[in-house]
Every structure is written in structure tokens, then in C-alpha cells.
Amino acid sequence: MHELSAREQLRIEALHAAVGVAAEFPDVLQTADDYFAWLVRHEAQQVAISVTVTRPDGSVVSLQQLTQSAGEGNPPLMTAMQDIDTATITMEPEDSMGQPTGDTLTITQDDGGTPGAPGASTAGSVANITYTVADGVTTITLAPVAEGSVTLTVSDPSAPNVAPFTNVFTVSASATASLVANITVNPGANQPPAGG
């Protein structure tokens, strides 16, 4: 008789649990597979992160790439940008083998915006944020609306062992693009006084 692998032992445990609740779930094998999948689910161990700041012409102003790993609390990332720039943050939760987990991330910003559903834009006092999720990758777009600072925090509620990612964006004014002058003509303002 051969020795059972850890995976086979987990499947047997899942089958035993499924048989115990078979009255509620008529398909015992499907229930066992559901328990098995739950037992062997890989929790995110790290998040691969990329922060790119671009100008309206598409030129890259800055690119930062890092990995936030389980048990490591990194200091906030600091990103300077101008009010004409756009920041794009991509994040992908991964297990210990570097495989995507597909975890849903929680996004917050400290300037009054409240990110809602993917695709919906938030209106913060410093930046508007929109995010999308595709193939386990969350892409966040930050578009400044005013000068100031905004802190973006992203966490993975499914993996409390991975510290939240924090990025402080400092938005400054872009270079002067034009001078605007208002000229007021007051007819008769330079006329000598009447009778004199």
C-alpha cells in the first residue's frame, strides 16, 4: 500500500466532510470538490505593483515597480506629478509560486473620493480615480483635478498577511503654457476736463 500525499489526504478529508453534510447537498462528489478547492486555495503572498506617470503626449515621466510581500510593511511610495499628468497603477495579487490569485482588492483615497464599482470614477478634491479589473489584474488610473496631496491605499482583504500598499501622490502645477491679459479700454478716460 502506498503512502498518501498531502493533497490526497486533504481530498479524503473534504470527502468525509461532504458526506457529513450530504443531506443538504445531494451531489456529494461536487461538495467534496468544493471543500477540497477551499482547503487548497492559495492565499496571496505578494502583490506585483507598477506605478507609471505619463504626460498627455504619452511620454513616461516616471516608472516604479515593486513587489509587496507577505509580512513586509513597506513605507509609503512617494510620487511627484504635475496637474497635467496621469498615474496608472497596476496590481496583481500572487501566491507564493508567483501565480495570480484573482483576489479582489480594496481601494481608498484620503481626499474625499470613494472608489465604487470598477469603471466608475470617484471625485476627490485632488484626484479622480477610476479602476478596472481584468484577468486578476487591477488597473487604477489617477487623474489630478487640483494641486495638493492624495494618499491612495490598496489592500487585499483575502490576504491579511500582505500589508496594504500606500502611495502618496503630490500634485504640483505644470509649467506656464500661456499668458492671458485682459485689456480694458475706457473711452474718454484720457480727455482733459471739460471747460478747462
Describe this structure in words.
- The chain has 196 residues and is mainly beta.
- It folds into 2 domains: 6-40, no CATH class; 46-172, Immunoglobulin-like (Sandwich), CATH 2.60.40.10.
- 14% of the residues lie in helices and 37% in strands.
- It has 2 helices and 10 strands; from the N terminus they run H-H-E-E-E-E-E-E-E-E-E-E.
- It has helices spanning 6-20, 28-40, and strands at residues 46-54, 60-69, 77-82, 86-94, 106-109, 122-123, 127-134, 137-144, 148-155, 165-172.
- The strands form 2 sheets. A 6-stranded antiparallel sheet has the order 2-1-4-8-7-6, with no helix packed on it. The chain has a 4-stranded mixed sheet with strand order 3-10-9-5, with no helix packed on it.
- Strand 7 and strand 8 form a beta hairpin.
- Helix 1 crosses helix 2 (28-40).
- The model has no long low-confidence stretch (mean pLDDT 81).
**Secondary structure: number of strands:** 10
Q: Main β-sheet, in a few words?
A: 6 strands, antiparallel
Order the strands across the largest sheet as they lie in space.
2-1-4-8-7-6
Radius of gyration: 28 Å
Overall mean confidence score, pLDDT: 81
CATH domain fold name of the largest domain = Immunoglobulin-like
CATH superfamily membership of the largest domain: Immunoglobulins
In short:
This protein is mainly β and 196 residues long.
SSE order and pairing:
Elements: H1 6-20, H2 28-40, E1 46-54, E2 60-69, E3 77-82, E4 86-94, E5 106-109, E6 122-123, E7 127-134, E8 137-144, E9 148-155, E10 165-172
Parallel strand pairs: 3-10
Antiparallel strand pairs: 1-2, 1-4, 4-8, 5-9, 6-7, 7-8, 9-10
Helix pairs in contact: 1-2
